[in-house]
Amino acid sequence: MSAPARRWPGWVGLAGVTSAGAAGGGVLGAAIALAAMIGVPLFAVMAGAAELAWVLDGAPLNRLAPKVLDEQFAGSPVLVTVPLFIFLGYVLAESNAPQRIVSAAQALLGWMPGGLAIVCLVASAFFTTLTGGSGVTIVAVGGLLLPALLKEGYPEKFSIGLVTTGGSLGLLFPPSLPILVYGLVAGLDFMTTFKAGVLPGLLVMGLLGGYAVWVGFRAKVPLQRPDPKVMAAALWNVKWELGIPVLLLGSLSSSLASLDEAAALGALYTLGVALFVHRDLKWADLPRILKSSMALSGAVVLILMMANALMNYVIDRQLPARVLEALAGAGLTERWQFLIALNLFLLVVGMLMDGFSAILVAVPLVLPFAARFGLQPFHLAMMFILNLELAFSAPPLGLNLFIASFRFGRPVVSLYRAVMPFVALLAIALGIVIAVPWLSTALVQGDIDAARAQAEQLGVPPREAWVLECVQVDATHPHACTEAERQRYEAVDAGTSEDDDQLLKELMGQ
User: Fold this and answer.
1) Residue 361: count of CB within 10 angstroms of its CB
2) What is the predicted pLDDT for the residue at 46?
3) Which of 284, 113, 301, 289 is nearest to 214 (CA)?
4) pLDDT exceeds 50 at position 282
5) Contact (Cβ atoms closer than 8 angstroms) between residue 172 and residue 132
6) Percent of the chain residues topping a pLDDT of 70
7) Which residue from 385, 419, 395 is spatially nearest to 211, judged by alpha carbons?
C-alpha cells in the first residue's frame, strides 16, 4: 500500500481550481494552478511560473538570478543547517529514541490525571521539535502510544485525535526547524525568534494539557503511583536524547558555534549515540538514511531557490503595492481586517502544502502587506507557525489526517470528528496569540531595548531595533516603525546618503 496523496475529488475540483487561477492571474495563473493540481513538483511549478512571468512581460530570463545567487541567499548558513537537521531527525526516527522518550515521559508524568495523554503531548512536541516533520512524529510516537491510550481506557476518538494532532506540536519550541527556515526567508535572527515562540508554545501545550486532564477525569482513567526511583531511572535512560537540545542551544547561546556548526555538532552527536552508545543503528543503515534525508533536503533547497526567483519578479513589478491598492479599494483598510484575511490565507496554504513549502511560498508574499499594516515581526512569525500547527490537523485536507489514516488504517473521514476538539483548542490558542501580541514579543523586548541602547550610545539610528519592532520589506535597509522616528531620522538618513555619494565620487576620481 502506498502513502496517501492529497488530491481534489475528481475533475470537477481540478477544473474549478484551474478556472480560479485563470480568473486571478490569467494564462499564468491557470498554468500554475493546473501544474500544481496534477502533481508537478513544487520547485518546478515555481521555476516555470517565474520563467513564464518574465517571458510574458517581455524581460530576459537572466532577471531570475539576483534573488537566487545573491549573498543573502547563497551565503546563508541555513542552507547548510536544513540538511543537517533533517538528517538528525531521520537518525532519531530510525533508532529506538521514540521508545526511550515515551518511556521517560510516562515515568515522569504518568501519575498525573490524564497522565498518559499528557505524555503523548510532551513526547510528540519534543520529537517534532527535533525532527521538524509531523509525519515522523505520528508514525514513531503515535504508533507507540495509541495502543497504550486505548488500553488505559481513554476514549477511542480522543486517542486517535490526540496522536493525530500531536504530529504538529513542538513547531514553536527551539530548535524548531520551521522557525529556522522562517527566519531565513523573513530575515529574522533565529535565536531571537526561538525566544519569541516559547510563550505561545506553552499556551498551546497548556490548553491541550487541560483538555487531556478533563478527559482523564471523565473517563475515570486509573492513576499511576509516582515512584522517584523509576523517574530517576527513566531520566537517566533518556539522558543522551536530552543532550541534543542542550548541545544545540548551549553552543548557540554561548557563541561557541555558529548555526551551521551547531547543526553539524548535533547531527554528529546523534549519529554517534545511535551507532556507538545505544547501538540502535548499524553502518549498513547509513546509506538508506542518507538517501532519504538528502532527497528531502534537496527538495527544500530547490523550492527555496525557485521561490526567491519568483519573488524577484513580484518585487520588480511592485505587485504587492497593486494588491494593496485593490484591497484598499475593496474596503480592507484596517489592521483587524487584514489579520482575518491573513490567517484565513495561511490556513488554506497550510492545508494545501507541507510546512516547509508553505513557509517558502507564503512568507515572501505576506511580508510586504504585513509591513504596510505595521505588524510586529515576531507576532507575524508566531501567527504563521501556529497556523501551520492548526492547518496540519484541520479537515478536510490537513496533512496529519492523511498520515494518521495511512498509519492506523482508518478512513480519513472518520478522523474529522476525532480531531475537531483539538482543532478548536488550537484555533482558540491562535485567536489569543492574534489578540495579545505581547505573548510573541515579551521575551524579545530585552533584545529590542539592548539594540536601542547601543544605537543611542553610538549616536546612530536604531536600525537593528526597527528590524525587531516592525516587519521590514527589506531587512538590509530597515525603516523606522513610527511616524515620529521617521521624521526624526529622515535628515540623518539623507545626510548619510549624501556623504556616501560624495565618498563614491572621490573614490572614482571625480
Assistant:
1) 23
2) 64
3) 113
4) yes
5) no
6) 73
7) 419
d(CA 502, CA 286): 58
Predicted TM-score (pTM) of the model is 0.72
Could you report the per-residue pLDDT of 310-359, keeping only the tens digit for each? Answer: 666 666 666 655 665 676 667 677 888 888 888 888 887 777 666 777 78
Task: Indicate the domain borders of the chain.
Answer: 96-237+330-458, 459-507
Q: Minimal CA–CA distance to 176: which of 195, 203, 163, 202?
A: 195
- DSSP string for residues in 90-140: HHHHHTTHHHHHHHHHHHHHTTSTTHHHHHHHHHHHHHHHHH--HHHHIII
Rounded to 5°, angle at Cα 280 from 276 and 284? 85
DSSP line for 299-348: HHHHHHHHHHHHHHHHHHTTHHHHHHHHHHHTT--SHHHHHHHHHHHHHH
Q: What is the pLDDT of residues 390-422, one digit of tens each?
A: 988 888 777 788 778 877 888 888 888 999 999
Residue count of the chain? 510
Phi and psi dihedrals of 41, rounded to 5? -55, 145
Query: Computed from CA positions of residues 452, 455, 461, 463, in that sequence, does the dihedral angle turn out positive or negative?
Result: negative
Give me 149's grid cell: 491510550
Q: What is the pLDDT of residue 334?
A: 80
| Residue 184 near residue 76, CB atoms below 8 Å | yes
What is the number of other CB atoms lying within 10 angstroms of the CB of residue 214?
13
Closest CA to 45 of 310, 397, 398: 310
All three cell numbers of 202, joined, read: 506553552
Find cell 502510544 and name the residue. Answer: 145
